[in-house]
Design goal:
The strands form two sheets. A three-stranded antiparallel beta sheet has the order 1-3-2. A three-stranded antiparallel beta sheet has the order 4-6-5. The longest helix is centred in the middle third of the chain and has 24 residues. It has two domains: about 60 residues, no CATH class; about 110 residues, Winged helix-like DNA-binding domain superfamily/Winged helix DNA-binding domain (Arc Repressor Mutant, subunit A, Orthogonal Bundle). The radius of gyration is 17 Å and the shape is globular. The protein contains eight helices and six strands. About 25% of the residues are buried. The N and C termini lie far apart (about 50 Å). The chain is α+β, with helices and mostly antiparallel strands and about 180 residues long.
């Protein structure tokens, strides 16, 4: 394991959460001051900043994003942001390192879905399948592929990773902007 492995993960657009069983060791490695300085110096030369917030790290471009880059970023992350908005609405007191079970989430969602048709609309945006349970499974798979949650040994149990905070902030900004309009 070396700094190149960490760069490979971060440069692919993924975040590293300190509570991830897959990438948590990278987090620990970057808290060695010598390795952190080496890594920061290397990514700086490549035009990036290493950002560390609330238990997760990611790379950010130094230069301001151009309009096309912003559009590409939004399009790349749109489904994740929508999935997090559903997750946040159903599990309102969600916290890092807690666990989610697909079946429990689905049952909780049933209490909200009749009163809020936007939940179904958002699930349809995430998944083309008609069955709501399969849509929820796809929501969890999407979040797991993007390192927002992490599947545990159990098929339907997931750990919430620190990176969820990043996406919740994007959802909150989106909600704020909608209120302003």
């Amino acid at each position: 394991m070396d700094l190149g492995d960490i760069y490979e993960v971060l440069s692919s657009g993924k975040m590293i959460s300190k509570n991830s069983s897959e990438y948590g060791h990278y987090w620990s490695m970057l808290y060695n001051p010598e390795d952190l300085k080496k890594f920061n110096d290397a990514v700086s030369v490549l035009g990036f900043n290493l950002i560390s917030e609330n238990g997760y790290i990611y790379l950010s471009k130094k230069a301001p994003m151009k309009e096309k880059e912003i559009e590409d970023y939004i399009n790349k992350h749109k489904k994740i942001i929508v999935a997090v908005s559903v997750l946040r609405q159903i599990e309102q007191s969600i916290d890092v390192s807690e666990f989610l079970i697909v079946q429990n989430f689905f049952m909780s969602m049933q209490e909200y879905i009749d009163d809020d048709p936007t939940i179904k609309e958002r699930l349809n945006f995430i998944s083309e399948k008609e069955d709501e349970y399969y849509q929820v499974e796809e929501l969890f798979d999407l979040l797991a592929r993007n390192k927002v949650i992490e599947r545990l040994h159990s098929e339907n149990k997931y750990r919430i990773l620190a990176a969820l905070d990043y996406y919740i902030n994007l959802v909150l900004m989106s909600e704020y902007n909608e209120e302003e309009e």
